[in-house]
UniProtKB/TrEMBL annotation:
This is Diaminopimelate epimerase. The record marks 178, 252 as: Could be important to modulate the pK values of the two catalytic cysteine residues. Keywords: Amino-acid biosynthesis, Cytoplasm, Isomerase, Lysine biosynthesis. Substrate binds at residues 15, 82, 92-93, 176, 228, 252-253, 262-263.
Length: 315
């Protein structure tokens, strides 16, 4: 087998992973092994697998990419795979749990003065450790998620198979693809000077708690690489404090519905900022609460990370 006999189980606000350290590059798993380890009935169970290793031991990175990572200060790489075995460009919650793993093995201290430079397929991510933060958790990390790109607002039509209603979705690139839909917004009407309707924004998707995200949402037009589909509801905003509060659920590409999605939270923050002008968001997901701060050129994500068990695998 191409994974070690002992692995770690961890999660970031309920987005859970099987993790292990591979210092010598001996344990790059294949798709079948990943599906086994992440299987919740026959394996350990997880939304994805994380191998913490050196950049040169990641088979899909070429020499130039490896050199670029080292030049940027990333001595370690988060080799992340979805539960179905497919490669993933990034995982925001996974980076925090990976940082916790690096601390456990003495590879990094991850303080404000000594941030952890972690290589990913979406570039180098910079993490700092805050410790206990009220409302967020006992071992909280902030990650600079880097730049974001947003498409035209409402460009996509999003629906859920077998369910009534649909809403408009907006594409956001966080190093991996997302389509974010804001639910429970009023239908917007626009009129010309003669009282005639010029445009109508249709949004009759059920509320967040009523969505059946065990079914993969349908996004039209189709994105060839697939996407994570986020559904977010604005709960309140405080324009004077530049603060907003929202609730989100997500169906992740290659994993199905998860309790949290770090890149998805950032994508939601980008869309909410475009909708409201509010830059700082506290977002509740089924697995907990995190904060997202959106700047013109980057996004910061802050949330908890936990290592919960060491698991000995039997052959």
């Amino acid at each position: 087998m191409t994974y070690p006999s002992t692995v770690i189980k961890g999660h970031g606000t309920g987005n859970d992973f099987v993790l292990y350290l591979d210092e010598a590059g001996k344990y790059e798993p294949d798709e079948e092994e990943i599906r086994f380890l992440c299987n919740r009935h026959f394996g350990i169970g997880a939304d994805g697998l994380i191998r913490l290793t050196k950049p040169e031991f990641v088979s899909d990175l070429d020499d130039e990419a490896v050199t670029d990572l080292y030049n940027a200060g990333a001595l370690w790489f988060m080799d992340y795979r979805n539960a179905d075995g497919s490669l993933a460009e990034m995982c925001g919650n996974g980076t925090r749990v990976t940082a916790a793993l690096a601390i456990r093995y003495g590879l990094a201290t991850v303080t404000k003065d000594e941030p952890f430079m972690l290589g990913t397929r979406a570039g180098v991510k910079v993490l700092t450790r805050l410790g206990q933060v009220e409302g967020l958790g006992k071992d909280v990390f902030t990650i600079d998620m880097g730049p974001w790109k947003m498409g035209e607002q409402g460009e996509f039509l999003v629906s859920i198979p077998g369910a009534e209603g649909s809403c408009r979705g907006t594409f956001v690139d966080m190093g991996n693809p997302h389509v974010v839909s804001v639910v429970k917004e009023p239908v917007e009407f626009a009129f010309d000077g003669y009282g005639m309707s010029m445009s109508i924004e249709i949004n009759d998707m059920p509320d967040i708690e009523e969505l059946d995200l065990t079914r993969t949402p349908v996004v039209e037009p189709v994105l060839s690489a697939g996407q994570n589909a986020e559904f977010v509801r604005i709960d309140s905003i405080d324009t004077h404090a530049d603060a907003g509060y929202a609730t989100m659920r997500v169906n992740e590409r290659g994993a199905g519905e998860t309790l949290s999605c770090g890149t998805g939270l950032c994508a939601a923050g980008v869309v909410l900022r475009a909708r409201t002008g509010i830059n700082n968001w506290t977002i509740t997901v089924p697995g907990g609460t995190l904060t997202v701060s959106v700047l013109p050129d980057r996004v910061y994500l802050t949330g908890d990370a936990r290592l919960v068990a060491q698991v000995k695998l039997w052959s």
